[in-house]
From TrEMBL:
<dbReference type="InterPro" id="IPR032476">
    <property type="entry name" value="CPT_N"/>
</dbReference>
<dbReference type="InterPro" id="IPR023213">
    <property type="entry name" value="CAT-like_dom_sf"/>
</dbReference>
<keyword id="KW-0012">Acyltransferase</keyword>
<dbReference type="Pfam" id="PF00755">
    <property type="entry name" value="Carn_acyltransf"/>
</dbReference>
<dbReference type="InterPro" id="IPR000542">
    <property type="entry name" value="Carn_acyl_trans"/>
</dbReference>
<keyword id="KW-0812">Transmembrane</keyword>
<dbReference type="GO" id="GO:0006635">
    <property type="term" value="P:fatty acid beta-oxidation"/>
</dbReference>
<dbReference type="InterPro" id="IPR042231">
    <property type="entry name" value="Cho/carn_acyl_trans_2"/>
</dbReference>
<dbReference type="GO" id="GO:0009437">
    <property type="term" value="P:carnitine metabolic process"/>
</dbReference>
<feature type="active site" description="Proton acceptor">
    <location>
        <position position="472"/>
    </location>
</feature>
<keyword id="KW-1133">Transmembrane helix</keyword>
<keyword id="KW-0443">Lipid metabolism</keyword>
<keyword id="KW-0472">Membrane</keyword>
<dbReference type="InterPro" id="IPR039551">
    <property type="entry name" value="Cho/carn_acyl_trans"/>
</dbReference>
<keyword id="KW-0813">Transport</keyword>
<comment type="pathway">
    <text>Lipid metabolism; fatty acid beta-oxidation.</text>
</comment>
<keyword id="KW-0276">Fatty acid metabolism</keyword>
């Protein structure tokens, strides 16, 4: 936009009398205000760097140190033990000026030293994790002192990234401990002969190759910020050559019972505004650092950095995450057309009503899609390694001209918006089936009406329902869930709507129309998108195979579970294993995602929640053992699960350590039969909890209908289940179950196999 205004801001013509200079003062004003916004952002970033750089102290604390040093010198005392005099010798000023300046230099050095000392102490405090393993009501004196000190350090108002340099590094577990915990995790899944074979493989690995790989891994941990995260991002996500749609991307849903407005453009206006307000908070670091619920312990915020203005760019062997510092527009898709919608004008964020007005212009635009434009998004949903992969197509057809400019507009946008032509949600004659179709629509849509490479895509349906689809490589679900909670709450409770369902605010009628993106896609490129063996066909086959079911469970919630003095998460995990046992007649390797954000740049760890204790309880229950015995076994299984979860959170997990050892072995060009077998084991039950992180945003007592549905993901194994769940309030748990139709042994609908829950 700024470039267009610059083109008309200065006009001149040559006349016989000389040069006639004409200025467009309106355009100059727009340019000026846009520049002011840019400089304000730069000043804000510089200010935040200073505040973060001195945390846990404050910039004003330098003044107190300087005054204290000057005061002691005034009383004829030398607090520097001669250092001020040495500094004074190197300053070419008068005696009085030398004394004052040398005292200030010493004060600054002392102040910086104190900051480093405080930061080191805070890092030591945050490295203490024993508090997680202590029983409720039986806190040790050490932990009580630790809590007091942490609160003392947290008395300042930290910025979003203030704690980053004080977070401890993820420790490398002892290889003996990891192998021991691994063997314990697979014991209930293996026969005696199979278990003995795995034990022999583990022992052989430890005595031979394992210790060698461990030394290299410890060497990496000495200089890397996090010894897992970079390899995890690259090898699990970016180097994956299969479709990221369904296999990697995940989705988030709207409110279950409420749609704030039935007006599609209005819902888009408020949703886009709320997202941009969140981005402003991230840029200004005004968001409070996330913490472990109920504590003052901070969590790593590094994943927030690439939330907006980010896309996954395809490569031949590996993709690359590209992030831009800022973007003043969003990309919009509607009925096969792509638009570039500016959301700022002269440095001012458009009002929700103005964004609604612009969205309505897109909805009313009667122009048809250009050749190849409608299904262009299929390039982001198919295989990365197919005959003509997305990377090669991008280089061949989208590296110059109008195609490059239009593709840049999508990839550099703040985020992607789809104005869907369908209605979705629970309402209708078939609420169960409607929720299932809603989930499938968010997970894959039509396979070409989402841009799966964007960090996240927002979907606004014709009836006003909304949702999102998120790319997984840049961040994990809790980060996106925090964003989506804020968006839903801001949309419904802060921005609101008029009585007729439109956004509030005024409209500047001089706003330019949304810019229609122009494409010149050759016929051979169009064929690559729609050919039976290429992008769209591969994606469509995958989408048709996915079986999704959304299951709101209202019989009871965490309130009743906690009355039994059992962890709600442990209860649900054991219930899922019981359901799987009844469904398949046995146990399986069970994946539960746990965070490691207690550490810098931490991401996830696996909780192997199928344990000897949980299997013992399920067998006793199925065999009809006495109620007291089953209750005792359930409590023991719950305590075991909680302990496994805590160990995963505190860096004592199994799978990330073994994964990194495997990566080292590949770098060294050596093979390990043990690691190869461990990493090829299928997760037939892959589970994840979506935590509600900002309960203060939702008043469920006064607004009980504003219940979040959470989100879900596709199955990890072809013959397994993907289960996501969200604990809502005290009396409700929402489940999202996925599987594949091609597997005759799995079915997602609870009426056909999950009523055991």
């Amino acid at each position: 936009m700024a470039e267009a205004h610059q083109a008309v801001a200065f006009q001149f013509t040559i006349t016989p009398e000389g040069i006639d200079l004409q200025l467009s003062y309106q355009a100059l004003n727009l340019i000026y205000r846009s520049g002011v916004r840019s400089w304000k952002k730069r000043v804000s970033r510089m200010r935040n760097r200073v505040i973060k750089g001195v945390f846990p102290a404050s910039p004003s604390s330098w003044l107190f140190v300087a005054i204290g040093i000057l005061a002691t010198m005034y009383m004829q005392s030398d607090p520097s033990m001669g250092l001020i005099s040495k500094i004074q010798q190197h300053l070419p000023l008068s005696d009085q000026g030398q004394t004052m300046l040398s005292a200030l230099v010493f004060s600054t050095l002392l102040w910086l030293s104190l900051i480093l000392a405080l930061r080191f102490c805070l890092k030591l405090l945050l490295s203490y994790h024993q508090w997680m393993f202590e029983q409720h009501g039986r806190i040790s004196n050490t932990t009580k002192i630790w809590v007091t000190l942490v609160r003392l350090f947290s008395s300042q108002k930290p910025l979003l990234y203030s704690y980053q340099t004080s977070l401890p590094h993820l420790p490398v577990p002892a290889i003996k401990d990891t192998l021991s915990r691994y063997l314990e995790s697979v014991r209930p899944l293996l026969e005696d002969t199979q278990y003995k074979r795995m034990t022999d493989l583990a022992n052989q690995f430890e005595s031979n190759l394992g210790n060698r790989l461990q030394r290299y891994l410890k060497l990496k941990a000495l200089w890397a910020t996090n010894y897992v995260s970079d390899w995890w991002e690259e090898y699990i996500y970016l180097r994956s050559r299969g479709p990221i749609m369904v296999n990697s991307n995940y989705y988030g849903m709207d409110f279950l019972y409420v749609t704030p407005t039935p007006v599609q453009a209005a819902r888009a206006g408020n949703t886009v505004t709320a997202l941009l307000l969140y981005r402003r908070k991230v840029n200004r670091e005004e968001l409070k650092p996330s913490r472990v619920p109920g504590t003052d312990i901070p969590l790593c915020a590094a994943q927030c950095e690439r939330m907006f203005n980010t896309t996954r760019t395809p490569g031949v062997e590996t993709d690359v995450l590209q992030h831009w510092q800022d973007s003043e527009f969003v990309a919009v898709y509607h009925r096969g057309r792509y638009f570039k919608l500016w959301v700022y004008r002269a440095g001012r964020l458009l009002s929700p009503r103005e964004i609604e007005h612009q969205m309505q212009k897109i909805l009313d635009d009667p122009s048809p899609p250009l050749p190849g434009e409608e299904k262009l998004g299929a390039l982001t949903s198919g295989d990365r390694y197919q005959v003509i992969p997305w990377a090669q197509t991008r280089k061949q057809y989208f590296s110059s001209g109008v195609n490059k400019r239009s593709l840049d507009a999508i990839e550099r946008s703040a985020f992607f918006v789809t104005l869907d032509t369908e209605d979705q949600g629970m309402e209708g004659d078939d609420p169960v089936g409607n929720l299932d179709r809603y989930a499938k629509s968010l997970l894959h849509g039509k396979c070409y009406d989402r841009w799966f490479d964007k960090s996240f895509s927002i979907v606004i349906y014709k009836n006003g329902k909304s949702g999102l689809n998120a790319e997984h490589s840049w961040a994990d679900a809790p980060t996106v869930a925090h964003l989506w909670e804020y968006t839903l709450a801001t949309d419904a409770f802060q921005l609101g709507y008029t009585e007729d369902g439109h956004c509030r605010g005024e409209v500047d009628r001089s706003l330019p129309h949304p810019q229609r993106l122009v494409w010149d896609i050759p016929s051979e490129c169009q064929e690559n998108m729609t050919n039976d063996s290429h992008s769209l066909a591969v994606a469509q086959t995958l989408a048709d195979d996915v079986d999704c079911h959304v299951f709101p469970f209202r019989e009871f919630g965490k309130g009743r579970i906690k009355k039994c003095r059992i962890s709600p998460d442990a209860f649900i995990q054991i219930s899922l294993q019981l359901a799987y046992f009844r469904d398949r007649g046995g146990f399986c390797l069970t994946y539960e995602a746990s965070m490691t954000r207690l550490f810098r740049e931490g991401r996830t760890e696996t909780v192997r929640s199928c344990s000897n204790e949980s299997c013992a309880f399920i067998r006793a229950l199925e065999d009809g053992e006495a109620e007291d015995q089953c209750r005792q076994l359930l409590r023991r299984a719950s305590e075991k699960h909680q302990n496994l979860y805590r160990m995963a959170m505190t860096g004592a997990g199994i799978d990330r350590h073994l994964f990194c050892l495997y990566v080292v072995s590949k770098y060294l060009g050596v093979e390990s039969a043990f690691l190869k077998e461990v990493l090829s084991e299928p997760w037939r039950l892959s589970t994840s909890q979506t935590p509600v992180q900002q309960m203060e945003l939702f008043d469920l007592k006064n607004h009980p209908d504003f219940v979040s549905l959470g989100g879900g993901f596709g199955p990890v194994a072809d013959d397994g289940y993907g289960v996501s769940y969200i604990i809502v309030g005290e009396d409700m748990i929402n489940f999202h179950v996925s599987s594949k139709h091609s597997c005759t042994d799995t079915v997602s609908n609870w009426n056909q196999g999950w009523s055991q829950l």
